[in-house]
Write the structure tokens for this entry.
Amino acid sequence: MSKKVNDKSIWNEIYEKEEFKPGWSSPGTDPNLISIIGDCLKQRCIGSYKMLDIGCGNGRNSMIVEEFPSYALEYTGADFADKAVEFCKGKYSGSKKFVHLDITEDNLPLDDHYDIIIDCGCFHSIPPEARAAYLKNVSKRADKSTLYIIGAWYREKEHIETKEPSYFPYLYLDEWFLNSNDIRDIFGKEFNLLFEIIDNQVYNGLNKGFAYFILRKC
Ligand SMILES: C[S@@+](CC[C@H](N)C(=O)[O-])C[C@H]1O[C@@H](n2cnc3c(N)ncnc32)[C@H](O)[C@@H]1O
């Protein structure tokens, strides 16, 4: 039976096989996200802020909430792998919300606006033909005050014709490698790229490193 590249069943399969601790979650809560969000919050008033985690997986980055107790972050994690969402609902209690959805579809059960939007390793697995739908859904939930961070495999070279091979050892799972020019090409009409951070170590020194693109609505 043929499967679509990056079909949600593949993600469910990975989470079940890896008992919800897939290799990429080994650093625990992503330390760079904590630092970028911390720097941003320092410039804001103490208060409550809504945070959306697109492709939340096993929910490891929901722990960002605990890092900033004075800011009362209202966390929503969203993922199209229903097994991952069920896992998160069982593991994290309290006010954290987890919703099962495909970020490229219409009529999503999400709020109209978020103050912080993170995507750690989801966008880089969205096939190019679905990127416009992803962008539309994110863009309408952001405004100029929204901090939007995309974490993705870093693509060092400027001119690579084809995407890199699949993420070993899973069949049917492809991930794209991105640099700041790619991000400007894809998001530039809706978002300005403020800056990027490349970390060569955070995910075990894999590939050319992992990039964090920090965006703000135009
Ligand atoms: C590499 S994992 C990263 C998970 C999590 N963000 C983390 O950092 O541990 C990518 C996640 O994106 C989810 N995903 C991929 N495409 C999606 C889509 N179209 N809508 C919602 N979630 C998606 C997958 O199910 C998977 O959980």
In short: The radius of gyration is 16 Å. Residues 197 and 212 are 5 Å apart (CA to CA). The pocket of S-adenosylmethionine is lined by residues 11, 24-25, 55-57, 60-61, 79-81, 84, 102-104, 120-122, 125-126 (CB under 6 Å). The chain has six helices and seven strands.
